[in-house]
């Protein structure tokens, strides 16, 4: 089964090939060029996009990928551009009045030979007519070769993860100054983007959402949009091929959730590689920027691109960080062995000298060395990147004692006011925000805290330099929503507790010596020796528990679900009770509206019977993170049979950004 990211990449590549399949001569321009240049010669072109569509493309494609698909240069629509009159241009922009004006201006100025215009989502009829009127009036309409709606207005940072790239949505939804008109416009934007995601997946799911908040509004309008498309469209975009028709028999359930249901997951400290990077450095458009210092005290900022084809990242992103560090060590040793073999055969001292091999070497040796060199060079750059990131993470872990905080949060149910105060007052824990997050999690997990205890902890937080605005808003939000402590608490999940695994710490102490000469980090071993050997417990977060209920898994004996039901706090049963009160929609049914009560149960029963409950799309209104994504992926992998889950949110947000939204909301409330 193709992932969402694979499908998006395929759609973008098709767009870059003038909306024909790669190596196809279906378009008139391609047919003309193939006659003069010969088949297989790429059609060189210019790519012009706005800032949003640039982010869509740059998340999944790199410059080399664009070049492989015939793009010689890519530029922003708003930038000053020179004329390249003998080259066609592919435009990929949002359907706005401003963007259409820019395109018409380019055509009037005759910047390019032909114009292939692609909109990120459906172009409203009024704008289409305006586009036609402007080009006709200027006498340039004959230069427009294509106008396409691509339905690609979302980002795919991971194989089965998407973001609508709408920043500060949680703040916007909860802002008291938000008007009904503005709220309606935001909900419509979310619905339009979700429609594009479903269209890319070529599936029409059943829909469920909790009552009373933004998720229900999205569910209602998305149901109406899908229903209108199915009933009224002359061409149903959801069934373009026999393969897609077959896919419709495995309908997933779309679970729409509000961020209010679980604030804890946005504040917790993580211990897996990907989530730790996002927490400490943020991951924007699959790029990581870290600040590194040298012995003289000078700092420099370096950015690294996480490639979709990075095999090490794919296999290690969801692993606990100590395991990743050892895997980096193993990968570097494997590289050094192969590099030593190549240099030994060529009679040189390093890979840099391979290109200068003398003719005294045998033809076979030369061929192997030259053939292997590009692949080894790329591997070295990749290992260097992960080593630099890991070294920087280790320094942050040591400085902020993140391993200690992670362990406390994993065992939050055992913490007392005294242990929390001890952590807050500990001068070795130097980051005030870490202390604020710890207490916020403790408060969310203990609904019955006495006001005096809260005041004592808040006073300690103030002395530690914490801004309590975000904490104050969490208290207001809990009071407004009467949030259930067992759903918002990390104790909702269960599993084996964190503990040692083999001789990980013993291996840490030798990593620095084993990597000598491979990186500039000579202190890696000493840093590792201060990091606790912790493995995350196997627990399900609230979002995962709700998805399990939505997929009809509550009666699954054994495994993770059974473990949850035996947990203190009964998170799975609580999630099941909450799910019973969800609104349910089926856009394919003739009857419009919420399928309440027995109809909803019948719907879930029929889905489970035909196997569609093995697939789900989860979307959180108000922001998501890699912690939830990884938790859902782990649940899917451990299920029997294995489930397929796609996770998305209005934006991917780390704890620092989420706390900033809470602080601003407190000021405006």
Question: Mind explaining what this structure looks like?
Answer:
The protein is α/β, with parallel strands linked by helices and 669 residues long. It is 51% helix and 11% strand. It is built from 29 helices and 14 strands. The strands form three sheets. The protein has a seven-stranded mixed beta sheet, sandwiched between helices. Helix 5 (97-108) runs parallel beside helix 6, helix 14 (321-346) runs antiparallel to helix 15 and helix 20 packs across helix 29 (655-668).
List keywords for this structure.
29 helices, single chain, 669 residues, alpha/beta, 14 strands
Give a brief outline of the structure:
The protein is an alpha/beta fold and 669 residues long. The chain contains 29 helices and 14 strands.
How are the strands of the largest sheet arranged? 6-7-14-13-9-8-12
Give the total of beta strands: 14
Q: Give the CA-CA distance, first to last residue.
A: 46 Å
What is the count of helical runs? 29
Oligomer: single chain
Average of the residue pLDDT scores: 83
Q: Which range does the strand content fall in? A: 5-15%
- Proportion of helical residues: 40-55%
Report the biggest beta sheet as strand number plus sense, adding barrel if it closes. Answer: 7 strands, mixed
**Contiguous uncertain segments of 5+ residues:** 34-39, 241-246, 483-527, 554-569
Structural class: alpha/beta
Query: Based on CA inertia axes, which overall geometry fits?
Result: globular
How big is the Rg?
A: 27 Å
